[in-house]
Design goal:
With 322 residues, the protein is an alpha/beta fold. It has 11 helices and 8 strands. The protein has a 6-stranded mixed sheet. Helix 8 packs antiparallel against helix 9. 33% of the residues are buried.
């Protein structure tokens, strides 16, 4: 088994010259999904193995067999939330998404191009030589738990995004989408208790919000209820402050992205003002992170955790506290 390491940048493509424009190297906060399944703790390794076995009807018992790598800076502006690993000549990447995005196959294609470059470098393989190089078989799974009603499972293909329709299937890349909301994919959730507990907790938060609670009250109550129910074997009790910070910023990120899409992005794109879009998104993201940090400070969340959850430097968080 080989750990795959990857370093990428947040990038946009301008409409005028199609050149890549580096916007930020800031590391974004974890999503709860990644904190559960993508860390290097014994419990995370165990949960990750349970999910892998549930997805593949396999029966692996060695949690260390899955050598995990998380992409620290992903290629699109969002919270980094991806888990990739190499097992039995397969390289597998998981991503959790709370919003429906038609570009998932393209993003998976870009992810794996980077992972394969790292694989070739690490294994000292040169594609310019004549000998055939065998590479791990890819699989890209997206765990969707957004509000849009979608089927339990479906695939998305890169060819759907081609400017000219191509029915030959000569060039293809596929994302496998699994809907992990409360009702869909019950069989998968029953086969993987950690996934079921994660889905149950997210549903708790959303039900609290539907019942008229504010963000802070809804999240705090859901965490307290998860502790009482001993979800994830005490994870919510041990990581209470961090979970509150992650979920608050995660739900605010969902709202922020919806506002960008509905109020600014499409309009700006149609007007050809891509540069303004980039600057506006950057300012909006920075402002939103500062607001999240202030709200977390009011909840007496330690500044160190706030810095890790929001991506704001610790010194700046300390300034917000004064």
């Amino acid at each position: 088994m080989t750990i795959l390491n990857s370093t990428e940048y947040y990038i946009y493509m301008t409409n005028e010259n199609r050149n890549f424009l580096s916007l930020s190297h800031r590391e974004y906060k974890d999503r709860l999904f990644k904190a559960i399944f993508g860390r290097n703790t014994d419990e995370s390794k165990r949960w990750r193995l349970e999910l892998y076995n549930a997805l593949n009807d396999s029966h692996y018992t060695d949690a260390d067999a899955l050598k995990v790598n998380t992409i620290e800076n992903v290629i699109y502006i969002t919270m980094h939330n991806d888990i990739s690993f190499l097992i039995d000549d397969h390289v597998v990447l998981w991503e959790q998404q709370s919003s429906y995005n038609k570009n998932m196959p393209l993003r998976g294609f870009l992810y794996f191009s980077q992972l394969y470059q790292e694989y070739l470098t690490e294994n000292k393989k040169d594609p310019c030589r004549n000998g055939e190089i065998k590479i791990p078989t890819p699989k890209f799974i997206v765990f969707y738990n957004g509000l849009k009603h979608l089927p339990d499972e479906f695939t998305m293909k890169l060819s759907d995004s081609f400017m000219q329709e191509d029915k030959t299937e000569a060039y293809e890349w596929t994302a496998y989408i699994k809907n992990i909301n409360k009702n869909p994919n019950q069989v998968l959730q029953k086969k993987c208790k950690p996934l079921y507990h994660y889905c149950k907790f997210v549903d708790m938060v959303r039900n609290n919000l539907k019942n008229g609670m504010g963000d802070h009250e809804a999240i705090n109550k859901a965490v307290d209820d998860a502790i009482k129910a001993n979800l994830l074997d005490g994870f919510f009790r041990r990581q209470k402050a961090e979970v509150i910070g992650m979920i608050l910023t995660e739900f605010n990120q969902e709202i922020y992205e919806e506002n960008v899409r509905e109020d600014g992005y499409l309009e700006g794109y149609d007007d050809g003002r891509n540069t303004g879009i980039i600057e506006g998104i950057a300012r909006g993201e920075s402002k939103k992170a500062a607001e999240d940090a202030k709200n977390l400070l009011k909840e007496n969340i330690p500044p160190e955790i706030i810095s890790r959850c929001t991506g704001i430097p610790l010194a700046q968080v300390m300034e917000l506290a004064t």
